[in-house]
Amino acid sequence: MFKNTFQSGFLSILYSIGSKPLQIWDKKVRNGHIKRITDNDIQSLVLEIEGTNVSTTYITCPADPKKTLGIKLPFLVMIIKNLKKYFTFEVQMTRMCVVAFGQVTTRA
């Protein structure tokens, strides 16, 4: 998704205050909800993802599981409020490793 995009500074893939915060995300909801609410502590819009089980209500990005985000930036920043409830998150990263072999020969 972002492989051919110039990446510098920060790249936001989820911004709860934006007009369409889940535009590039896939949503799965069973026995729960995903909604935007105002958090009392920070007085700002946040996403509330809540379900009876962490495996039945979740969001994934990119929405198409065959695609990748293609993010090359070196840091991942997440801000998560501790609600004293079970939660899980999964990040899949692959590191590209380039190996080059060369041979130097001398001629007499």
UniProtKB/TrEMBL annotation:
InterPro entries: CFA20/CFAP20DC, CFA20_dom. Pfam families: CFA20_dom (PF05018). Residues 1-94 form the CFA20 domain. It comes from the Eukaryota. PANTHER family: ORF PROTEIN (PTHR12458). This is Cilia and flagella associated protein 20. It comes from Homo sapiens. The lineage of its organism: Eukaryota, Metazoa, Chordata, Craniata, Vertebrata. The gene is CFAP20.
